[in-house]
Amino acid sequence: MTHYNYLIIGGGMTADAAARGIRDIDAKGSVGLIGEEPHPPYNRPPLSKKLWQGKPLESIWRKTETLDVEMHLGRAVQTLDLPNKRVTDDQGNVYSFERLLLATGGTPRRFPFGGDDILYFRTLDDYQKLRTLSDGKQRFAVIGGGFIGSEIAAALTMNGKDVVMIFPGEGIGARMFPHDLSQFLNRYYQEKGIELLAGSLVIGLTRQGEELRLNIRDNRTGAEKWLLVDGVVAGIGIEPNIALAQRAGLPVDNGIVVDEYLRAGNPDVYAAGDVANFYNPALGRRIRVEHENNALTMGRHAGRNMAGETTPYHYLPYFYSDLFELGYEAIGLVDPQLETIPFWSTPYQKGVVYYLQDRRVRGVLLWNVWEKAGDARNLIAEPGPFKPEDLPGRL
Asked: Do residues 46 and 131 lie in contact, with contact meaning Cβ atoms separated by under 8 Å?
């Protein structure tokens, strides 16, 4: 049995950030990390962004090994014995700890068909598989019109591939953007050469020789059709990996529930990153955030608290994306069901969209507007009340 002062379950950006937070406070305590992937921690956003634009693969590594962290990679933790402060991995190895971080992330949602013929894009191995496939194939289907789907469709198109996007909503990013902006993105992607099947569901997949046949149903008419492609990529969201915490009796509800110090129902167990459900005072509600900024800030915060600090985590994270020549940062509740107030300096090219609820700003979309996330965060924290005419010039 191996003993650590600090044990981290998870091998992603949150885990690396936590190790850095521990080292901020404790330079000598022993740190162990158990990760399911065979790779040490790496930056995930370049997998659907910069690596497709020529950034070298070696640029993604976070260099966790420089932190004097003992890494156990390619292993999955099976049991968490809280009374004895031990975990056991799938190879039968036992590790004991004084303080534990659950940075277990999430697992992509999957269709009940298609098997390994559908690539659920999330990891470095997924990127390398798609890159290899794209070197010899031409026509790709991307299922999903959200964050990952829109980025992968753009990446493949910029690399000379023929792409069809299939998604159930009316427009790209329809769960985040106002209707008119989502419809603009539809036209923008079509102008880039991407075929769109909006309002459509993939209902089956079969292999025909070297090609894949997708069966598709139109949500509006019920009509069915099929198409042949060389590869299929899906980005339809993730489910937080809560099973380990749940079996150990820790609180779970849309993730692992943590207090303001990121403790997960036990004074020596913490959770952070994609899997953590935390309370944000500015929004007055619990949230779970699946993006880089939260992984890094929350991970580091958890590491520092594990090593002896007692500082509440009240940070409101942002997320960002690149869509061909367009880009955005979003913070707070970016939900088109709220009242949306857009102010465009150039329609759909540069501007700010405010999301209001009960006369308070609950979210901000910065569309090709940069270095304003901190100001947006402050605005969301203000009590208001706000009227639409109060907002021009705030950001």
From this structure: no
pLDDT tens-digit series, residues 337-395: 999 999 999 999 999 999 999 999 999 999 999 999 999 999 999 999 999 999 988 99
Give residue 180's Cα distance to chain centre.
Answer: 25
- Which long-range contacts (C-beta less than 8 Å, at least 24 apart) are formed by 126-133? 126/47, 127/47, 127/48, 127/51, 130/231, 130/233, 131/51, 133/230, 133/231
CA separation for the pair 231, 138 (Å, rounded): 8
Amino acid identity for residue 391 in this structure: L
Q: What phi-psi label fits residue 332: left (phi over 0), alpha (psi between -120 and 50 degrees) or beta?
A: left
**Of the candidates 156, 162, 185, 189, which has an alpha carbon nearest to the alpha carbon of residue 49?**
156
Torsion, Cα 131 164 329 59, to 10 degrees, reads 10
DSSP type of residue 64: G
Q: Angle at CA 277, nearest 5°, toward 272 and 283? A: 115
Structure tokens of 268? 């020596």
Answering whether pTM is above 0.70, one says yes
